[in-house]
């Protein structure tokens, strides 16, 4: 991680509810009547599970609040020890993948916060929230959760044109939730498990919830999974994904439910593996498949139920396109 000998320039803390966000919608509108999950101030799914000595994912709660308007400020703040809420304002240009220390909330201000050119890297980090950021032109991964990091919440972001993955969750990481993001014509959207040789590090880990994301004209890896179980993929909107939707490989266990697949020729791979990776296990239920050339989810075996770890409520699958279009991406939470 980048080291710094200077002390961060603190500004007065704001209420955590304001920083983490609530959808600001006039009274009486349709959005107001949606379930409270549309205005989450804390994660659902695996990032909310008490485990590994961590009580859910709270990010920088309890720490000071700062605002980063320059690259220098941003790099200093993410490398600070201790809880910190980092408000990102405007465009921050970075290179490569920059390390983020534990106990941070990184949240964009308004609808115009951008991290451009590089990405965020989690190396044995934990308890981090990343929300309301537009990631553009990352020269590698936009977000890399690796080396046994845990309790990470990636929510309400937009991913545009990373050279490699938009979100990778690898090398023994777990208790991660990826929610309400817009994968805007990305190629390799989300990889869980770094290689076919990674079973010793990844088996029994890579516990990830993926919900209410808009996979919009993105090509593949929504997600591609090796070894992890359970990976819970629910209430996502898949639209025009040319290569495939979900791939469960190398004995991974993936539950795919309540998703809406529109014009996706290959929604799910599992029994036959994918590329050079061997078969995985996949359970599908309650999904909708529509549009020209749409196939169905290939299933295989049984999978540990997500309810073993947390309770959840599905939205009606037919409502998913409108809900996700309205709610995914930046500018939908207050900060």
TrEMBL record:
One of its GO terms (biological process) is polysaccharide catabolic process. Residues 61-267 form the Pectate lyase domain. One of its GO terms (molecular function) is pectate lyase activity. It is found in: Secreted. InterPro entries: PbH1, Pec_lyase, Pectin_lyas_fold, Pectin_lyase_fold/virulence, PEL. Residues 1-30 form the signal peptide. Belongs to the polysaccharide lyase 1 family. It comes from the Bacteria. Keywords: Carbohydrate metabolism, Lyase, Polysaccharide degradation, Secreted, Signal. It comes from Streptomyces muensis. GO terms for cellular component: extracellular region. This is Pectate lyase.
